[in-house]
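Ticket reopened. Same input as before:
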Amino acid sequence: MSAERRRPGALLAELGVHALLLGAVAFALYPVLWVVALALSPGDAPEASILPIPTAPSLRHFEAVVTTTSSEGVWLFGRQLANSVITAVATSVTAIVIATPAAYALARFDFVGARSGTKALLASQMFPGVAAAIPLYLLLNALSLLDTRSGLVLVYATSAVPFAIFQLKSAFEGIPRDLEEAAMVDGATRFGAFVRVVLPAARPALAITALFAFMTAWNEFILAATFLSSEDMYTLPIVLQRYMGEYDAQWGAFAAGSILVSVPVMALFYALQRNLVGGLTSGGVKG
Amino acid sequence: MRAGLLTLAALAAAPLVAPAVAAAQERVEVWHAYRGEEEEGLRAAAAAFMRASPDVRVRLVAQPFGAYASKLESAIPTGNGPDLFIDTHDRVASYVAASLIVAVEPADRAAFEARIEPAHRAALTIEGALRGYPLSVKAPALYVNTAFVAGEVEALEDLAALSLPSGVYPLVMEAQSAYWVSGLFGAYGAGLVDEDGGWGLGTDGATRALEQLRGLVEAGVIPRETDGALVARLFTAGRAASAISGPWLAPDLPPELRWRVQPLPIVRGAGGEPMRPYVTVEGAFVASRARAPDGARRFAEFLMLGEGALLRARRARQVVTDEAAWASLEDDAFLRGFRRAARQGRVTPTHPHMRMAYVPADRAIRKVLRGTFGAREALAEGGRRFDDVTRALPAPVEPAWGLLALGLLMLGAIALSIRRLREAPLRAAIKQSLPAYRYVAHAAIAVGLLVILPLVVGAATSFFAGRGTDMYFVGLANYADILSARGGDLFGNGSFWLVLLVTVLWTAANVGLHVVIGVALALLLYRPYLRLKGVYRVLLIIPWAVPNYVTALAWRGMFHFEYGAVNTILERLGLERVSWFASWVTAFGANVATNVWLGFPFMMVVTLGALTSIPKDVYEAAAVDGANAWQRFRHITLPLLGPFLAPAVAMGSVWTFNMFNVVYLVSGGEPDGGTEILVSEAYRWAFTRGNQYGYAAAYAVLIFVILVIGTRLTARAAEARA
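Engineering reply: fixed in the latest deploy. New output:
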């Protein structure tokens, strides 16, 4: 490999790679920068230009989004941010807690119903959610969980579980059985080996699965808007949708809100990027 | 900061004050979808009401407009709804049909009849009973920039004749939208629906109106592809002599701009008739399961007449229905302008078909403005589309047949499982499986109850028909209807089979490009000595981190004809501007570009992960054998990547197949519904075509069946090859 570096033309190839990657980065960032430009522009429509640069940058849209208050004068944005964080974190914890043992069982045990169960999980991913909103509403109503964060968490977490099980199942399949067998020889129970040996080894996949469940809850709008009916319960995506009216849209505020909503997810991606690469594909080869 | 401190103080004080008054108070929950000034005005009115009536406590809840109607529909029947809600009159008929609201009787009938115009009372009267309290009216008016036009604009044709500096449009309006064009249609005596709820744009008048509109756009009098934000921007920037807009435009206008408001002008081409736009009457409605109906009525009365009306006029800038309030609004030119505009308009028909007419009408108008169709032809086609979505629902089928079929099916399933359970090997196997069940039980219960059960119930609604929640059993009629393209051409516009074809193309194009771009970028990033690798990787996954409904809208803006970045770039490169949503190929391309952008990071990351698990020595051996880069990729990397990519491709295909947001938000199905995919069709049946949930559910079931069969077949094919 080091021989390749010294080859004439390697520098040129390197430059070419950077040029391609820079092009891809420009493609990836360009639409997002338009959102940023719109959020920083004082009006509600962007300028017709090639570079997304606001002409008279102002923070008034951000201010408007952050300082909204309820009719009783309660500061709403803080509460709604807290709702979003609590809901998303609880969703990802719940989804992981539910999915992990099930994924482990599917990866390690051969049991009656494993195949049909996996098929049902896969099938649930193929059914468009548009038909399920009303039944879910009635179900939450029966459980008296409408307009609560717990109800939302329950729905989000369970909807994230099937994908989480697939992710974790393939991650567990990629972990050699010898590891836990050695632990069991040393006297650990099956469950002890699972908790103390398998789970730490699957940490990247767990992190990514948690991130996906977090995003499911963080970005979801339709169910949240249907189930929640008080402003101090709203999550941030509902707040964003409030800027779109029947006749007019407050694009500036919408864009500013979008950026505020996106920043935490970007930060998580940044923090977890190493896990992302390993965690998505571990054990992609089925044994 | 000060506001924050005040809030804190208020919070601290609240527990001390609350218990003292709470006992006698009636709590009234009021839902609305107002924002900005209107929300502030409503709050001011509520505060004034509570001062006057300390025994009632009003709680205002602002709802997102997009989910408002469907939320009322699910919340009120289950007792989770508001006591009072504010909405427009054109939904009242469907609310009455679904028993969401109760009939009301004003406390002072004489004052009500003396102070509220008959047309506004009539708008909220269904089957002879008053259903709500009329509060205000909304209608488009003409904003005039007085720097360009001194007096009142008399005729639409006069605007075209203005001599203006270059870059200033005579008129800006949302010419692509039937609601905003309704004034012009009205001048020619046409409306979206006729009195019986039939298609109203099949008339000669409608054709002439649309031809005139096309003439105005082609002559550059009205800019192309104008949405609300663009109307606001052009008028704000002084680049329009006049604008057709609503009251919400005013707060954003800069102080240095000199403008006034007048009713829409007359149309000489229509024999001097005035433009008669649709007028919406907003009312307050008492919900049928209100817990505090008396408080709700009192608050509604307060809003409607007297102080409440005046507060709404002054603070919310609403054109209030209370005639008496106008005596003290004499000097308010803005509100008077809008009031005159509303008087010149006509109240939107309340027929339930009215809301289903907008989409076909919008699409017909767009086709004509893009010059792809003649006005008469496009409107006739719009009429066929309208007839299709308003067609008579299938006849009810005796539910006994459905129950019988269901019963037989369940009996069969039970008999089968009992027989299997009797088999000794299975019982032994189940006994052995018990430890595994301890790991999966909670997941099975949770997913079964909260994922599978709602889907099964949702699927079951596909055997029912109806508009809204009032449904009856129709057996397989929905399926027969969909699969036979509702008796029309099997591959005609909007037919299930054509949409399926588009959906398959859509999925193939997207997933193909996701894989190509994702793998290519991963290979570039995987070079061992690459500098800035981490930076590139982080920046390249940003499309994944931003909510897709945000970036889909950003992409839509980038494809705008006049102001979109894509066309600006094309022009700078010396190329022609493209009207992206005018032809199927470009509109489909715009959707694909957006979705490829959204999806490539996932494939890139999957590939990067896969690459790390390919042993390096394989490459070294190949390099020794003299394989070049392409050969190494083709014969080593690609085959080794395959098994890693297969699950991601399968998952990605399912996601893309059902990627509703991009299609709905970027092209919106344009041109003429051609880029709709199955899931967006399902959504339209559920929400913009008269809430035919059963029909939408049948679409959902068909999507499910197609995906199950599709993944089975590809899995089989993959196994056969391996």
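Residues 570 and 590 of chain B are 14 Å apart (CA to CA). Residues 24-137+280-346 of chain B form a domain with the D-Maltodextrin-Binding Protein; domain 2 fold (CATH 3.40.190.10). Please confirm and we'll close it.
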